[in-house]
Amino acid sequence: MSLEPDPQAAEQAAEVPLQPPARLLLVDDEPGLRTAVQAYLEDEGFQVTTAVDGEDGWAKAQELLPDLVISDVMMPRLDGYGLLRKLRDDERLGGTPVIFLTAKGMTADRIEGFQAGCDDYIPKPFDPDELVARVRNVVRRQERLLQEAARFADADIGQMAKQITEIRSLLATGGSKQQGAAVKHEFTPREASVLQLVAEGMMNKEIARRLETSIRNVEKYVSRLFTKTGTASRTELVRYALENGLVD
After folding, report:
1. Which of 37, 121, 129, 151 lies 20 to 30 Å from 228 when distance is taken between CA atoms?
2. CB atoms within 10 A of CB 5
3. How high is the pLDDT of residue 105?
4. In Å, what is the CA distance from 238 to each residue of 167, 202, 211, 220?
5. How many CA atoms lie within 13 A of 50 on its CB side?
6. Secondary structure class of 157 (helix, strand, coil)
7. Total Cβ atoms within 10 A of residue 56
C-alpha cells in the first residue's frame, strides 16, 4: 500500500472552496462571561467579535455585518431589546439572527424576547455545549433560507432578461411611453437603488451582493416597490418604471 500523496486527490481537495467561519457578535457587559464565551465559541471554529453593551454592539454590528448576534438583555446605556430594535430597523442588518443570552428566565420574559423579534433565547446559567448547538442551529437555518431564496431568485433570470430587453426595445421606438404629468413616488434611497438594479435585469442575489445587504432585505424592498407602484411582478415593475421615467 503506497503512502505517497495522490496529486490528483490533492488537486481535487484544493478545488473545494472552504466555507468561511460564521461571524458572531457577542454583546455582554460581564467581562468574565464575555471572555469565557468568546474563547469557547472560537474553539468551536466561529469568528467572534465582542462588545461591552448595546451601544458598543450597535456600532460594531454596522462595521462587521455579523452572521449572528448573541446579546445579553440587561445592559447599561442600551439593553438587548434596544439593540434588537436598531438591528431590525436597519436596511443592512434587519435580517440578522439574534440570540438573547440573559439571566432572566421567566416565561413572560421569553415571550417578550420572541415578540421583539429574537430568534432564540437562552437563560443563564447555560451549558456551553447547548449554546454552541443553538448557535449552529440558527446559523444553519439562516444559510438554508439564503440558499433557498437565491435559488428562487435566479430561477427566471433568463426569461427576465429577455422580457426587459423587449420592454426597452418597445419604449425606444415610442411604443408605450406615457405622456403627461410625471408620476411621483416617495421611494427611499435604498428602494430607488433596488428598482434601478431590477430594471437592469439583476436578480435578488446579485442585487444583495451589489448593495452589500441580505437577500431577505432585497425581497423586502422589491415587495415594497410592488405595493407603491401597484404592480405584481418584476416584469410589470420594470415596465412601469421605464414607462414613467423612474429609472435610467
Report:
1. 151
2. 8
3. 63
4. 8, 11, 19, 17
5. 16
6. helix
7. 17
Predicted confidence at residue 161, as pLDDT, reads 64
Q: In this predicted model, what pLDDT tens digit does every residue of 168-221 receive, in sequence order?
A: 666 565 544 554 445 677 888 888 999 998 888 787 878 888 888 877 788 888
Give backbone dihedrals phi and psi of 197, rounded to 5 degrees, phi first. Answer: -70, -35
For the record, the C-alpha cell of 221 comes out as: 424592498
Report mean pLDDT in 10-residue bins for the chain, 248 residues.
50 50 93 93 94 96 91 92 89 84 73 81 86 90 68 56 66 52 74 88 82 82 84 82 83
Type of residue found at 231: T
The x, y and z cell numbers of residue 88, run together, are 431590525
Q: What are phi and psi of 242, to 5 degrees?
A: -70, -45
What is the Cα gyration radius of the chain? Answer: 23
Strands 98-102, 120-123: pairing kind: parallel
Prior bond of 97 cis (ω within 30°) = no
Orientation of helix 234-243 relative to helix 157-172, angle to 10°: 20
Beta partners for residue 26, in sequence order: 50, 70
Cα–Cα distances in angstroms (integers) from residue 173 to residues 44, 160, 169, 179, 245, in the given order: 61, 20, 7, 14, 15
State how far the Cα of 219 lies from the Cα of 225, in Å rounded to an integer: 10
Alpha helices, DSSP H, located in the chain: 7-15, 31-43, 54-64, 80-89, 107-116, 128-154, 157-172, 189-199, 204-211, 215-229, 234-243
Cell of 59: 456600532
